[in-house]
Amino acid sequence: MKFGSITLTVVASAICVLGLYQLLSAVTWLRYMDSGYLHEQSHFTQHFTARKGDIKSKIHIQDMRSITCKNTTLKKLDPFHPSALPYIPHFPPLKCRRQASVAESKVDGDGYLTLIIKNYSKVTDNIHCYYQYIRHPTKPYKEDEAFVLSKRIDLSPANRVKLQEDFVYVFCINETGYKVYENFHLHMVKKEEELISKKYSEITGNQPRLNVLIVINDGVSMSGAVRYLPKTIEYLKKEMNGTIFPGCHAVGENSLPNLFPLLTGLPHTEASIDAPFVWKHFSEKGYKTFYLEDKVWATFTYVDPEATRPPADYYTHPFWVAMENSSLYWDSQTFCLGNDPIHRIALQYLGYYVENYQRQSYFGLYFLNELSHDYGSAIQLADADYRDFLKEHNERGHFNNTIMLFMSDHGSRFFGLRSTPIGHLEASNPLLTMVLPPWLKQQYPHIAEAVNSNAERLVTPYDIHATHDYGSAIQLADADYRDFLKEHNERGHFNNTIMLFMSDHGSRFFGLRSTPIGHLEASNPLLTMVLPPWLKQQYPHIAEAVNSNAERLVTPYDIHATLVDILHSDLPITKKSTNGKKRRERLAKGISLFQNLPSRTCASAGIPEDTCTLCTPLEPTFLDINSQKARFIANAVLTKINYVLVNATSECDVLLISDITYIAVTSYDRLSVTYIVIVKTVPGSGIFEASVLETRAMASDSTESQYTVITPVIRISLYDNNCCCAEDSRIDKYCHCKVTRRQSRSKVFPLYY
């Protein structure tokens, strides 16, 4: 289960009240320091028994301060940096096997449901089988109850049933009512065609309208995509002429802060039910809309957890909730539903959509969480499937009128790599790839030119949104992705599709995330864009712009701006504006990837200072973790965490430091030094990261330094089962409950870290 990241701000009504809180917090913390309540097994224990006077004079608790980073130069991260190598696992192929069953249900390509009873006997003679449709609720509901079932309908082995709805649950019971078989099926039943409004027809005439397909992989950095999706990336680049954007930069820690700007052009702090989600605008223009996210706690359920109306024409959320409430799901292998990989079930459904609507304009959003949210490297399991999906639909011409974004929301947020300096950088560097139709590149060469130019620029989700206005477990999926792309590309299913193959962020957890390079990777998610060949030919300036932008800083705001470009079909036909010609006003933060991006700082691109990695060195200077200064820097982070906990609830333990992973210098001048620090805490084995500013009155005197935490303290390890006992869910990432709670149900994952 994942939780949205909300910055916690302590507000006091008067200075005296804030001062009292600080004093009480410091006294409480010092009491624990003096009581010897420290992790006895840690060799760091001796370093955290500082005197009261030292701590009170050197550590400041105050609101977050910003760091002014003026750098505009992008960093080129090495996916195989020496510090990352120990954290790059390779998984065997995913093979899903279920226990022998008395029955088997299937849905063929024409949408007929059939049932086979195996090994007829006295036992199977008394089996009765049924099917039910899974539907979206029409009344407010709890998140884990976000589906309703139709009345059960008899399912006989002798009959083929033509499905009338997309989501089907099949089960068989014996004479005592015991369930002996169950299964779930996803198959698209095409909805009745809707006429495009007369007004829009008058505007567009007979010109083809671009489809938009956004494929998002949770937590895959640009470097992670190179490591774990080699087949997919190669096919996107060589066979679909996609443009990769190594300058894509996350604007937040997790999915919501990155995807909300992409889909609305607004920061996630403005999230609400009435937000201007781009799929609403596409729907108003006559587009069919599709939204698939394969987890119960989906990204936008935090915005509207009791939505009674599906946000898109095809919305699969009820299916996944029903699936995760079944015994079949929990009895299956990790990443599997019975005999089928879950990501392959989702890709097959996406394939139905791409094929059925290739001749009618559509906006599709596919967000894969299952593989890479918790275990970023497991995305390699989908590589061949992705490649085959793209190949099939590309060769069948299904993408000929489609702009595709293959991307991520951010890099990996957890595990070993994230605790390294390179993992810190990767976390803010998500994957982003854009594919333009060939005809668009030919007709609008300046767009292709701008896209190519922007490949080397800073790009954010705001820029992706702005483009609307112009017309590690993941490696397990590498072969699957490649085969998916290959199949649909060769069948021409992408001939009218712009595809984005992307991630939301880099890896957030586990080993690599705890390294400096893992820190960088977390902010560098995958982003790949595929343009239809005709679009590149007809609009070569678009292809040129996309290729140019591949080397620029890119954020989710830019991706959103790009989607807005597509929506309005207002493709630029010249590189420079003509005098007297009315031009659309630029969005607040995002710049379309179809226009040449300027060199930008993080601030000008809408990237918060605490997320910005442009001023983080690739090879930082490390501080001796056994030094007195390291003790004070680590204590600053710990005091900030405990200050929040003590003043928010009495349900959580006060935390203590068990280890310092590293402290690295990120910037310095005569009177100040900024550090990135990663610490491990007990109880609960949490791993946390923050930036700490050291300031001193005189350049030559470091003995009187003050240490201030200037960014939110983020968790880069997975939550344990004792995190969620306080009423305020915003402190779950810090909390270890004093009272042990009943362990939640979870699948066992064979770790390769």
UniProtKB/TrEMBL annotation:
InterPro entries linked: Alkaline_phosphatase_core_sf (IPR017850), DUF229 (IPR004245)
Give any Gene Ontology cellular component.
extracellular space
Tell me where on the tree of life, at the top rank, the source sits.
Eukaryota
List the protein's name. Answer: Uncharacterized protein LOC106163367
> Which organism encodes this protein?
Lingula anatina
